[in-house]
Write a structure and sequence with these properties.
Blueprint: H1 9-18, H2 21-25, H3 39-45, E1 49-55, E2 61-67, E3 73-77, E4 80-83, E5 101-108, E6 113-124, E7 129-138, E8 149-151, E9 161-163, H4 168-176, E10 179-186, E11 190-197, E12 201-204, E13 207-211, H5 220-227, E14 230-236, E15 243-255, E16 258-270, E17 276-278
Antiparallel strand pairs: 1-2, 1-5, 3-4, 4-7, 5-6, 6-7, 8-17, 9-16, 10-11, 10-14, 12-13, 13-16, 14-15, 15-16
Helix pairs in contact: 1-5
Length: 280
């Protein structure tokens, strides 16, 4: 088993191939034990949007957005978090099982700020999620599309479609999206939730590809993929709240002109709607 401190071997391998080991080493302190007091607590108290990466009861990896009023992400201690929301009926992570490692991302697109949170889901019921946080650190604001999000009226019963194939409406939403969520995992470090800006291309009916845009050089997501190919994507139409969730496998695509990620779709869940809309 690898050392549980610092970067894991997958992250280090990607950093070496990208030639950024020394740049990344300056950031290793960000991976120290979490302390949610102070600025982190204030940031989380204002959030209305949270993404969560976890496994469903068949052990399939998914990432899904959660929404709530300011205060729904509730800091209870230096490493204790209570989320006053759960994946809704029909969501791929509905009935989330406690005891697993999860990844979360608190996002403020209006101010282009984000906080990455990794830890263990200690309890879950039909109203709340309790998390023991291992790591919490900010990411750079690059490629966050600025948008103001407002609560949307409560929707009726969710209309959800499950399958293994993208239909034309799914493809249209994916192609229009300027933002998506990426979930990855590591056998011992647990799950991770990440934001990605930019467009996704479809190489064929079931294969997506996107360029790895320059960031903080830590390569948390690509490092996980290098070790465990399980991955998940979520796309949201912020004008309507429509969502497309994908679960499958990914690989890092190294090219002379730059690197990208190739994702092969294995499962699709369309809906339920996110109760947030982009302000007009």
């Amino acid at each position: 088993m690898d050392d549980e401190k610092g970067f894991h071997p997958g992250e280090l391998a990607v950093q070496r191939r990208a030639g950024v080991v020394h740049d990344a080493a300056r950031l290793v302190g960000m991976l120290d034990a979490a302390d949610l007091r102070g600025g982190a607590a204030r940031f989380l108290a204002e959030r209305t949007f949270l993404a969560i990466t976890a496994r469903d009861r068949t052990d399939r990896l998914w990432i899904t957005p959660l929404a709530g009023p300011p205060g729904f992400v509730d800091v209870r201690g230096p490493a204790d978090l209570l989320v006053h929301a759960v994946p809704p009926p029909g969501d791929p992570l509905e009935g989330l099982a406690a005891g697993q490692q999860i990844g979360m991302l608190a996002l403020d697109p209006a101010r282009r700020r984000r906080l990455r949170i990794n830890g263990r889901l200690t309890s879950a019921d039909d109203r709340e999620l309790a998390v023991q946080v291992d790591q919490a650190y900010g990411n750079c604001p690059r490629f966050i599309h600025p948008r103001d999000l407002e609560p949307a009226p409560a929707a009726g019963p969710a209309t959800v479609r499950r399958g293994a194939v993208l239909d034309p409406a799914d493809v249209d939403l994916i192609r229009r999206a300027d933002t998506f969520l990426l979930g990855t995992s590591h056998p011992t470090r647990g799950a991770d939730a990440s934001h990605r800006g930019g467009r996704v291309a479809l190489q064929d009916e079931q294969t997506l590809w996107w360029p790895d845009l320059p960031g903080n050089n830590m390569f948390n997501s690509l490092g996980n993929i290098a070790v465990d190919p399980a991955a998940a994507l979520a796309f949201v139409d912020f004008a309507t709240g429509a969502t497309v969730h994908l679960s499958g496998v990914a690989e890092v695509d190294w090219q002379d002109e730059g690197r990208g990620v190739r994702f092969m779709v294995e499962a699709v869940v369309v809906g339920p709607s996110l109760p947030l809309r982009e302000a007009s």
